[in-house]
Design a protein that fits this description.
The complex is a heterodimer of chains A (581) and B (337). With 581 residues, chain A is α+β, with helices and mostly antiparallel strands. Chain A contains 16 helices and 22 strands. In chain A, helix 7 runs parallel beside helix 8 (313-322). With 337 residues, chain B is mostly helical. Classes of the chains: A alpha+beta (581), B mainly alpha (337).
Chain lengths: 581, 337
């Protein structure tokens, strides 16, 4: 029976699904057109990549790849697809956007390159106008030509929060009239007046500076949609028209999806995608343990099977012993934090005591994480590989992000005069790992001089209760995953007043002011200054406690090639996968 | 069908009188209970399964003492990172990666470092506690409503029969599934209260969805018995209804009651484990079903983790079932072995 599965997904508490909001300014300097390899510190961009994509050495064509996963595909409607799996599958295989990511083996990571636009967009000085020139000769799967108007339709759709409540909200956040225009379906007569179309160019106008527009341009919400084919959004959601190398064949929402070659896709218009594989069979809502075994055993069709789920701990051990070359492990875009509710835990000393009392390794173990692979210590807010990460590294609590010292915690509590303070936190009592983590936490908090009060809820209710500021708990745990690899995808959502990921309910006028100031600075300068701001927030206020960063450990069959970690989505590099015959 | 015990008592008394006379031939009068237990004593399946059931009862009663004797404790007593290998999540001592150790005779659970033996012992306690309390509850409800429905005729019988059918047709798993989240959200803020609430609601659910079977059986029996002469006689001489029900009718139904009770036990053990496995049973105290759920992904590397609760449930359920079967045979006057 299946009710264990969705819980396993929630167990990690990652919230990319809801990784809404965000900041504005960013680093990218697109004027120069030089390849800016930032490596560890940030992400590369290359606006000059020309189609077709360079062939992969030794790659062979043909074959069907089977994809197994325990999680379902929530929705494949481009303006609403905002889960890592739906977003990654759509943008890599089915729909084309203004910009896209590709895996660059030389830097061992992802870089932003043009897609349907001929470059990464041209912007005016203060990033309030972006112009994209659309390529000629790009057709939908039904043979009709992609026009700049179709991007306008997509923008109108992406602003419809009533029709697509789960979609990313950047269009509303930054585009002109984004807060007032209700979107294409909710307000069919209205218009956002936020874009101008001139032949094959589209100019998008912003409400406020949006230097990260070229990143937003890579989201499925920025893929062209023909106006006449999408009158009925529910119908279109079942078969979004493909512009990429593969199109929908069979699709059962949540449970299965078959993609076949799109004959209208022309490699001479696409700088990064390949079409080596004949067909993709995605079978979802599978049992984690069973699908791990299938891929590890590598018999028959399993040789051309892959999963983007993390291997379960026992299976990871087995896979490492039997076929380490088929395990694909690497960074994912998520970090995890303990968010003390600063309205209730007002003393930074108590928060420091929590940092020393938190059972890092024990909680990772109890949560079923592979320590060192899917969870490793982290002391900073902006993670590795993101522009604006603080260098040299700092450690505000001084515990290396993994050391627990109950005595020190007690001392700090005594100093604060809060020994025996109550800690109320949520757990899902119908999810065994969540219960195990709760048991570990109760023990650790007691040892550290706190009085733990776990509050039980169900997997179904968990996110709602956690997101409710009035829930009677005084700290929350959660993860934050990036939308694009720039600091403004991290600091404002976590620290600005009333932002979605601000589970500490931290609110400081000066910090708000500083962050706003950063967002209007030139990107390179902002990336420098953001480091100081992050350090200052953490050292002065200690509003969050980093409790580890995520990682992926996926596996594929022996005949699958070209599968690497896409560190932006935390999934795989779909575009480069091929099967050896 | 057994004879009314009043008649048997009569016979016994009579036998005593007879035996008082020295010359008379000694007549052995035995009550149906005596006959049944005599039969059971000679049934080696019954003997063995009762020994096994007794063994589990002893384990359940003395779980803390036994755990103490082994030097193990229930729950998370040490930091998982101190007793587990960080890279594999398995114990630093004991299976699967190391040899047997008396510190943890069944090893420790991956991820949490709980001692498996202690969890098993307390799991047995949970299992039997739930099973016995539920069986007693279901049997009492079944008896009361069965007697009432069978004896009352008219509207009361119709109402009770309606509820019988209603409960019979209500899907049990659905009830359990829908109740679990309600309880969690109602009592979630206090772990101790939640544990109590889960425990009693589990028992209530098990009772509510199993009393009907015995009630139906009893109702049928009563329907046929109430027309018999001894009941008619009792009514004629003005015996109060309560007395007729409990003194005249009930003793005649010892057999179905004992059988239903003993066959109910294994069903409840299995149901408790099954619900815990589905994550809608007890979550705040050890339970075999939960251990099974935790152990399934580790089966290949660490089979002992799964085998312990599975064998526990299997042996207990089989023993209880066989004992129940033997009881049924022993109490059934129509069987002859």
């Amino acid at each position: 029976m299946k009710w264990k599965k969705p819980m396993a997904a929630v167990g990690t508490l990652a919230l990319l699904s809801a990784a809404a909001c965000g900041g504005s300014d960013s680093s990218s300097d697109t004027d120069e057109g030089d390849q800016t390899t930032v490596g560890e510190a940030g992400l590369a961009q290359d606006p000059n990549v020309e189609p077709p994509a360079a062939p992969i050495e030794g790659a062979q064509s043909g074959g069907t790849v089977t994809v197994l996963s325990a999680a379902g595909l929530n929705t494949m409607m481009p303006p609403e697809a905002y889960y890592t799996n739906t977003g990654s599958i759509l943008t890599s295989l089915v729909t084309r956007e203004l910009t896209q990511y590709r895996y660059n083996a030389d830097i061992g990571g992802m870089e932003l390159v043009p897609d349907l636009a001929t470059d990464l967009g041209q912007h005016n000085e203060d990033f309030t106008e972006w112009t994209f020139t659309i390529r000629d000769g790009v057709r939908y799967e039904d043979g009709t030509e992609v026009t700049a108007e179709d991007f306008g339709t997509a923008i109108d759709m992406s602003m419809d929060r009533k029709q697509f409540p789960d979609g990313a909200e950047y269009s509303n956040e930054y585009f002109l009239n984004g807060q007032t225009y209700k979107g294409r379906y909710t307000d069919p007569q209205g218009s956002c007046d936020c874009y101008e179309i001139d032949g094959n160019t589209i100019t998008i106008k912003m409400e406020r500076p949006f230097p990260s527009m070229n990143y937003w341009g890579s989201f499925p919400a920025m893929s062209p949609i023909p106006a006449d084919k999408s009158e009925d959004p529910d119908e279109y959601a079942l078969h979004p028209l493909a512009t990429g190398p593969y199109m929908f064949d069979q699709y059962e929402p949540e449970t299965s999806l078959t993609l076949v070659k799109n004959p209208e896709w022309d490699p001479n218009t696409d700088p990064a995608r390949h079409q080596y594989v004949d067909q993709w069979d995605m079978k979802l809502l599978e049992d984690s343990s069973a699908l791990d075994q299938v891929i590890i055993e590598d018999q028959g069709d399993a040789q051309t099977t892959l999963t983007y789920d993390n291997l379960l701990l026992p299976d990871y051990q087995k896979a490492q012993a039997q076929a380490p070359e088929r395990v694909v492990a690497g960074p994912d875009p998520c970090q995890f934090y303990v968010f003390p509710d600063v309205r209730k835990i007002t003393d930074p000393k108590v928060r420091e005591a929590m940092a020393w009392g938190y059972p890092y390794k024990d909680a990772w173990l109890a949560g079923g994480e592979i320590v060192g692979v899917t969870r490793s210590p982290e002391t900073q807010i902006v993670p590795k590989g993101v522009t604006g990460r603080v260098t040299p590294p700092y450690d505000v609590y001084g515990n290396g992000g993994q050391e627990t010292d109950p005595d020190k915690a007690q001392e700090l509590l005594k100093e604060a005069g809060k020994l025996g303070m109550e800690l109320k936190f949520l757990y899902a009592s119908d999810d065994p790992p969540s219960v195990d983590v709760k048991d570990v936490l109760v023990r650790a908090w007691k040892e550290a001089g706190f009085t733990p009060k776990p509050v039980a809820t169900t997997v179904a209710e968990f996110s709602t209760l956690r997101a409710d500021p009035n829930t009677d708990i005084n700290y929350r745990t959660g993860g934050w995953c990036l939308d694009w690899p720039v600091w403004d995808s991290w600091l404002p959502p976590l620290f600005q007043t009333d932002q979605y990921a601000n589970y500490s309910y931290f609110s400081n006028k000066q910090v708000d002011q500083q962050l706003r100031q950063l967002q209007s600075e030139p990107p390179a300068q902002a990336a420098e200054d953001a480091q100081d701001v992050e350090k200052e927030i953490m050292e002065k206020y200690k509003p969050v406690i980093p409790v580890g960063k995520g990682g992926v450990a996926m596996m594929h069959g022996s005949r699958i090639n070209g599968m690497e970690v896409d560190s932006v989505y935390g999934l795989l590099t779909w575009k480069d996968v091929w099967i050896s015959q | 069908m057994t004879l009314p015990p009043t008649a048997a008592d009569e016979a016994l008394r009579h036998a005593d009188e007879v035996s008082a006379a020295p010359e008379a031939v000694k007549i052995h009068g035995r009550s149906p209970m005596q006959i049944a237990f005599e039969r059971l004593r000679h049934d080696w399946v019954a003997v063995i399964s009762s020994v096994i059931v007794l063994f589990f009862i002893v384990i359940a009663l003395f779980a803390p003492l036994i755990a103490n004797a082994f030097g193990v404790e229930e729950g998370i007593v040490e930091n998982p990172s101190d007793v587990l290998e960080l890279d594999t999540g398995y114990g630093l001592e004991g299976p699967p990666n190391h040899g047997f150790t008396w510190d943890h005779p069944l090893g420790v659970a991956p991820s949490t470092g709980k001692d498996n033996l202690a969890e098993w012992l307390f799991g047995a306690r949970t299992s039997l506690e739930v099973a016995f309390v539920s069986a007693i509850g279901a049997t009492s409800l079944g008896i009361v409503f069965g007697l009432l429905a069978g004896f009352s005729r008219g509207w009361l019988d119709r109402i009770i029969s309606f509820f019988l059918d209603l409960f019979l047709s209500f899907p049990f798993i659905l009830g359990a599934l829908s109740l679990a989240p309600i309880l969690i959200n109602r009592f979630g803020s206090d772990a101790a209260k939640l544990d109590q609430a889960q425990f009693y609601s589990l028992i209530l659910i098990l009772v509510f969805f199993s009393w009907m079977y015995l009630a139906r059986l009893i109702r049928g029996e009563v329907l046929s018995l109430r027309e018999r002469e001894f009941i008619q006689a009792a009514r004629v001489i003005g015996v109060p209804t309560r007395r007729i029900l409990f003194k005249e009718l009930l003793p005649n139904m010892i057999a179905p009651i004992v059988v239903s009770f003993s066959l109910g036990l294994p069903a409840f053990v299995a149901a408790e484990a099954g619900l815990a496995f589905l994550g809608i049973g007890l979550t705040e105290r050890p339970s075999w079903g939960q251990t099974i759920l935790d152990a399934i992904p580790h089966f290949e590397v660490y089979p002992l983790f799964l085998w312990a609760p599975v064998i526990g449930i299997m042996v207990l359920v089989v023993a209880l079932n066989l004992l129940g079967d033997s009881l049924r045979d022993a109490f059934d006057p129509k069987t002859r072995r």
